Amino acid sequence: MATEGRKFKNFTEWFDELLLNSRIADPRYPVKGFIVYLENGKYVMECVRRKLEEKLEKDGHKPMLFPIVATEENFSKEAEHIKGFRQEVFSITRGEEGSSLILRPTSETIIYPMFSIWIKSYADLPFKVHQSCEIYRYETKATRPLLRVREIPWNEAHTVHESPEDAERQFKTAIRIYSEVLEELGIAFLLLKRPDFDKFAGADYSVAFDTWNPDGKVNQVATVHNLGTNFSRVFEILFERRDGGKEYGWQLCYGMGYSRVLAAIIAHHGDDVGPCFPPEVAPIQVVIVPIPFKGNEEEVINYSREILNKVREKYRVILDDRKDVTPGEKFYHWERMGVPIRLEVGPKEVASQTITLMRRDLRERLTVKIEELEKTINKIIVEMPKIFLAKSRQILGKMIIDSYTLEEAAEAIENKKIVRACWCGNIECADFIKTRVGGEIRGYRYDIHEEPFSNCVSCRKNSRYVIYIARAY
């Protein structure tokens, strides 16, 4: 029986092997920070993309696709924004009329010049668009496949609103949409409001979805930013009010990284053999493995094909009838490919008109009558993400350790934990915590209010916030 020991003992080794063996991605592309997404990784990300886009479009976001480049002039317009991204940009040095162009590290400075053309009146608002695309950031830290790459597949949404109240309502809607996507994939997360020194460049405030990782680091899979009128003032996104006056639009932007969500699915649900994909996004949902004995090969294969015909219209299913591979080797192969449900068919099943079903999440075998098969598979497909989510939340809860001193916090970080501590709000204390503890302040809870339970972990003065400290990708 497969266990999950390896991913907690040596995550890097486990993860790197899995990416290749399970056909997720190949990091051996000869440009640092760029990877090739293989068939299983690409399929899962495509399912996540469709899932997210469906929810965004149901909420009124229009799908668009903007150019990949910004002019240096537009990129430089918002002072805080350029300060935050200047070190991360890729430039095309031979641009129009000799000027350089910027490959988008994010798209505010590409999209907002168009908003200023399109938006003229309160009747145009709220204005909501989204795009799935790649962004490019010159990561100076060590790159990691899926988690820290220089070409990032993601979805970004941008909205303009008539009032700060309407913008805040949309902010909460964006939080809900992202929460639904992640929870339906069985991913637990901390919803954290970033401290001002770590908010998105140019935003009034930022909220991030941090998921746990087996090595104790956190994986930021999505963020939501309230931009206020900071960008609309720079890019002249003005609208005529209902009373005839002019006003700048209130804006939001938010994004979800597809490769990071893929990494979270693998890290949360995988075991020593390989990934276990939630059925909704699994490239293959069901594999049928015949187990013939000598003399009854034909009847086992025929019964397996009968089962295939029964389930193939509703599920992504494959019949592995290879003759030169043992059943045990087939079991291992398809578990390594992340298939969540396996159907085993031998002479016993033929005689009793049953199927032995192995569900990967609980690693348990069930005997199912053929007439009950479809109902049983449906039940498992509904149950599995809920089981994944409950387990993921349980692990996250165990990873969070309350710390009252810097020494306790440093020990917890060294032991691959996420620290919960108290902070006075002083930037000098934040810097000192990062230096002494070895992790950074990720923020404080956005979804619930937590009362400080001690003095500041750094200066010992009165605390204002309960914060979460962790290493991060």
- Return Rg in Å: 25 Å
Major sheet description: 11 strands, mixed
Number of helices: 15
Q: Give a count of the beta strands, DSSP E runs of length 2 or more.
A: 23
Strand neighbour order, sheet with most strands:
3-7-8-14-11-10-9-22-23-21-20
Flag low-confidence runs: none
The name of the CATH topology of the largest domain is BirA Bifunctional Protein, domain 2
Estimate the strand proportion: 25-35%
Can you lay out the helices and strands and say which pair or pack?
Blueprint: H1 5-9, H2 11-21, E1 25-26, E2 36-37, H3 39-58, E3 62-63, E4 69-71, H4 72-75, H5 79-85, E5 90-92, E6 101-103, H6 108-118, E7 127-136, E8 151-161, H7 164-184, E9 190-193, E10 205-212, E11 218-228, H8 230-234, E12 238-240, E13 246-248, E14 250-257, H9 258-269, E15 286-290, H10 297-311, E16 317-319, H11 327-336, E17 341-345, H12 347-352, E18 354-359, E19 364-369, H13 373-399, E20 400-402, H14 406-414, E21 418-423, H15 427-437, E22 440-445, E23 465-470
Parallel strand pairs: 3-7, 15-16, 15-17, 20-21
Antiparallel strand pairs: 1-2, 4-6, 5-6, 7-8, 8-14, 9-10, 9-22, 10-11, 11-14, 12-13, 17-18, 18-19, 21-23, 22-23
Helix pairs in contact: 3-7, 3-9
What does this structure look like?
37% of the residues lie in helices and 25% in strands. The chain is of the alpha+beta class. The chain folds into 3 domains: 5-269, Bira Bifunctional Protein, Domain 2 (BirA Bifunctional Protein, domain 2), CATH 3.30.930; 286-378, Anticodon-binding domain (Rossmann fold, 3-Layer(aba) Sandwich), CATH 3.40.50.800; 400-470, C-terminal domain of ProRS (Translation Initiation Factor IF3, 2-Layer Sandwich), CATH 3.30.110. The strands form 5 sheets. The chain has an 11-stranded mixed sheet. The relative contact order is 0.12.
